Amino acid sequence: MTRTTTAGLRPSAGVGTNRWVVLVVLCVSLLLVALDATVLHVAIPAVTEDLRPSAMELLWIVDAYPLICASLLILFGTLGDRVGRRRILLLGYAIFGTASAVAALAGTPQVLIAARALLGVGGAMIMPATLSILRQVFPDRRERATAIGVWTAVAAVGAATGPVLGGFLVENFWWGSVFLINIPLMALILPLGRWLLPESRGSGDGPWDVLGALMAAAGVLGSVLGVKRLGGGGTVLGLGTLGPLLVGATLLVLFVRRQKRREHPLIDIRMFARTAFATSVGCIVLAMLALVGLELIAVQYLQLVLDLSPLETGLRLLPLTFAAMAAGATGSYTLRRTGPRLMVSLGFVLTALAVLLLTLMGYHDRPALLTTGFVLLGFGLQTTLFGAYESMLSEAPADRAGGAAAIGETSYQLGAGMGIALLGSVMNAAYAPGLSRVAGVPAEAGADAANSLGEAYQVALQLGGPAGQALRAAARDSFVHGLHVTLVVSAGLLLLGALAALRLPKVMDCPVPEGAAEPPADREVAAEVPAPVRREPAETAGSGRAAH
């Protein structure tokens, strides 16, 4: 019988309401990782002015963190199942804090890139560990749904408040302060985590597949790198785009074949044969594809079309954050009342309606419209992500929680990269033609302006006079047109997600364990997940049903 052990449980973390204290520690961990993914964006101009990186170095300063983090999620998620999830999490804290100090004090672009890569290593240790520990601490699905609602809301808060916090710090201090804030929090959370968090492991059967873990890491790295370069304007057949994509895809195919043949695989590929699990993963990809691509374009619109400062831009995005928090807080209730299928489908539909509403954005600031659209967008997407994450995690066996969490987080990262690539490509295709024939503007200047709205403004400034004004107006018109086209395409993808979500279970299945007079989460975290109401307890961890 497959077992999940929870060795070394601290008295304060194992029983009663103290599992909610564990949730607080896990959410603070996730908040720092999510915050670091976006907090640097508004600091890029200051970094450029201070360190003078080349164009390639600047690209790696931005991309090193998400690339390394995404590529190592499966490696560290499955390693945590073997050696202990709490152990991996605490090591991740230490690495994250150390890397933050190095990044804050970096004096050269190379040091900053290395520090950002090290931050990615720490983030890859922290993210799947928080979700897999949550799976163990909340064995009862009802309470786990509430906990996942808080967890997903915190992730949204971290990503959305990153630009606000970054803008405030850069305007009042120096760019290194966006990293320095991590250090006192990590210094606090490391001893707290050591004391409060329970240790848990998977079955531990067989040796850990080191080669498979490295294949997965290299495969995800190549795939995400290729997708990001495609989103950055690279051609599909270009060596810098096609090469990483082919290598990444090949390694991932070989990884899947290897896992199918092994007696003790890193990731049980059979989980994808479960309709609810595979559909949930697909919904996470689609939701993130829409969210990240839209956020990127929205930030450009707010700053370059409406001429808002970085701090004002971040504040305008706060309604999205508050709506996501509300969706997370009410998600457990909604899931129990509607079931996963209806909840995720309605979340996608609401998000599509919000996106279509935002097509009314034009050349002038309309705060009420933007606020309404961002509120609907945040609530709809958070509802979708909540239902998808909860269904995915509940469908996975408890002893594979780390691997399942890693799959979910990798899907999150892949969806984000695909969103930037796909929606960015749609945006460029709709934006560039409007700048090909602007009266009085040389063809070379028009070609440079077609790269981005920010570059178009710089070219217009250099030209000056009527030609510069004409180019600036044409670029602005083309950007708003491209924004509308991109929003319509995004709405179509979201409606496809709503159709895909119809494959999820209709109701939230919450069987009561045999002989339980109270919800199992009110007892100490069990040495194995309680069996459903059937007479075959040996099937609990290995069956195709959700473990509760």
Automatic annotation (TrEMBL):
Q: Which InterPro entries match?
A: MFS, MFS_dom, MFS_trans_sf
Residues covered by region (Disordered): 514-548
Cellular location(s): Cell membrane
Going by the UniProt record, its keywords in alphabetical order are: Antibiotic resistance, Cell membrane, Membrane, Transmembrane, Transmembrane helix, Transport
Residues annotated as domain Major facilitator superfamily (MFS) profile:
22-509
User: What does the record say about its membrane topology?
Assistant: Multi-pass membrane protein
Parts of the chain that traverse the membrane: 20-46, 58-76, 88-107, 113-134, 146-168, 174-196, 208-227, 233-256, 277-302, 314-335, 342-363, 369-389, 479-502
PANTHER family in the cross-refs: MAJOR FACILITATOR SUPERFAMILY MULTIDRUG TRANSPORTER MFSC, METHYL VIOLOGEN RESISTANCE PROTEIN SMVA
What name has this protein been given in UniProt?
Answer: MFS transporter
Q: Which organism is it from?
A: Streptomyces sannanensis
Highest classification ranks of the organism:
Bacteria, Bacillati, Actinomycetota, Actinomycetes, Kitasatosporales
